Amino acid sequence: MRVAALSIHFRPMDARSLSSLEYFAALVADDDSLSLTEAAAAIAQVGEPELDLQAVLTDLDTLAWRLRQRLPADAAPLQRVQALHHYLYKDLGFSAGEVDDPACSHLNRVLQQRRGIPVAMAVIYLELAGQIGLQADGLAFPGHFMVKLHLPLGEAVIDPLSGRSLSRQDLEARLEPYLDPDAVGRLGLEAASGALGELLAEHLQPASARDILARMLRNLERAHRASGDLLQLLQIQHRQVTLEPEVWTWRRERGQTLAQLGLTEEAIEDLQCYLDHAGRSSDRRRISAQLAALREAGPPRWH
Q1: I need a labelling partner for 300 at 20 to 30 A (CA). Which of 51, 66, 158, 283 fits?
Q2: pLDDT at 183 over 60
Q3: 118 inside domain
Q4: Same-domain status, 119 and 266
Q5: How far is CA 246 from the centre of its chain?
Q6: Coil, strand, or helix at residue 172?
Q7: Dihedral angle of Cα 206, 212, 214, 217, to the nearest 10 degrees
Q8: Total number of domains constituting the chain
Q9: Predicted confidence (pLDDT) per residue in 117-141, tens digit
C-alpha cells in the first residue's frame, strides 16, 4: 500500500530512462520498499508501454482527497468505512468487470471505466482505506480476492466488488468447493468441518504485496492465454519471472511461449533452467523431450 498526503511521488529511478519491464523490476526488487499500488499500476504498461504511472497515482490521490473532505478529523473508524463504501460503490459506481478482459485488471482502466476484477478493486480499496486512516489487508481467497478490515470491535472481511461484509458462514461456503470431496468422505463430517476451519484460517492470513501482484499477473496470464495473444502473454510471463524468480514453473511457461514465437535460444535457456530446478517433477520427461527437439531443430529458418 502507498500512503500519500500529497499528489506528488518521488522515485529513486527515472521511469523515462527504463523500459516498462525494467521499471517494474526496479519497483519489485525489494519487499521493504515495494509499493503495491505503483507496481500494480505498472502492470498495465504491458498493454500501454507509454502509460503515465504518476498520472494514475495522482488520480488515486485525488479520489482519496475528495473522500477525506467528507470526513471530520475525528471520524470514528466505522464512520470512515461507511464513507469509503458509499463513495466507491454508490457515488463512483465501481462494480464487477469481466475476468477475461485485461482492462478489468489494469488499474488505470479500472479507474476510468469503474469496473474491475476483485484483486484490482482490492488494490484501489486498500489504497483509499490507507489514505483515510483505516488498517486493511488483502486476502488471497481462492476464486475471489477479499479485503480484511481491522476495526476496534474486531475484523471484517469485505468483498471489494461491493463493500459487502461476509460472515464466517459465507466464507466457509466459498471455500467448501476447494475441499477434496474424496478426503471429506474419508474424514467424516466432524473432521471435514475441522479441515474447512483450517483452510479458512489459512486464507484469512494477510497476503503480501508480492502475493497480490502475483495474483494479478496470473489472472492476466490466463486472459492472454485464452485469447491466444502470445506477445502480450510473453510480457506478462516476463513479469512473473521478475516478481517470483524462484517459482520455476514460470520459466517453463515462458519457455514454451518463447518456443511458440520461434525464439528458440531463449526458449532453450528457460526450459533448461526449469529442468535444473524441477527435481522429480511429473512433467520432467515431457519437457526434456521438448528441449531435445528444440536443440535438434535449431533456430527457425525464415523464407
Answers
A1: 283
A2: no
A3: yes
A4: no
A5: 18
A6: helix
A7: 150
A8: 2
A9: 999 999 999 999 999 999 999 999 9
